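Suppose you are handed only two things: the residues of a chain and a line of SMILES describing zinc ion. What would the bound structure be? This form records exactly that question and the answer produced for it, so the two can be stored side by side and reused later without any lookup.

QUESTION INPUTS
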Amino acid sequence: MIERIKSLLADDTDASVTYAALEARLALEKVCYDRLRQRHDYIPHAELRGWSPSYVMNKIMADVDENLGKTMTLMIGSPVSLGIKPEDDDYTEIGTEVGFRPRVIASMWNALSNLALHVKLPEHKDDHISSYGDKAGIRAKVDLVVEELERISKGTMTFSGFGEEVSFECHCGQKNKRRAGLLKSGQTISCFNPKCSRGYKVTLEDDASFTFELDSVEILCAACGAITLAPRGALLKMDYEQPSTVVCVKCAHPNRVQWILARADLPSPDAQPQAD
Ligand SMILES: [Zn+2]
Ligand SMILES: [Zn+2]
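ANSWER OUTPUT
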């Protein structure tokens, strides 16, 4: 990809430099997504609500790997059986992952789009609408991106992050893994299975262990009165007024449910109309 960008820059026409900017922007997305792919065991696709490089990078740092920005080298020491103290050991390098600079990448990605990938809005009637942006400006920015891409490509391996791992099994059978250090008590996380819409509430217990409780809604059975826990995620995916059924765990009665608009019986006098 870097070679293609360089050869487009070498052609040095308005069009080729603009295409170089497009390739450079795609390359930035690709390196970001590649870091995501390495860590996808820890982020369910359902929890990705954006796709821009800065969103993806920030999500990875918040949920999987706070060290994404650091350059890391993995080394291996002598076998423990030799009894060498860690500080006296000679380590062999296994590989290096070059740290990411999410803010730099996000700003380059935005700048390329502003400089090269939009036609300039005319400011007055006689304004000339040019097909391409300012060649020198675009070229200078693409050069910076190439430099950054070359810096990142010096890495020889990628990690999925460090830290204690916790896991739990979803009702659908999917095993879910998370980094303990990045879980927060009270948050709701999604199951990794893309076909499963269950969510789990995270609680940090007194003994520092985590529990994962199905995020659910209690459905009282119309036939027998027993309570069935219906996963909230699946219910929230239903359209307004779309009927669905929740089968009672006790008597198997198919309870019909749907979302409706409800008016509060006693609105508070100082309630403000809700803006959305
Ligand atoms: Zn699941
Ligand atoms: Zn029932």
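WHAT STANDS OUT: The first strand starts at residue 72 and ends at 76. The radius of gyration is 27 Å.
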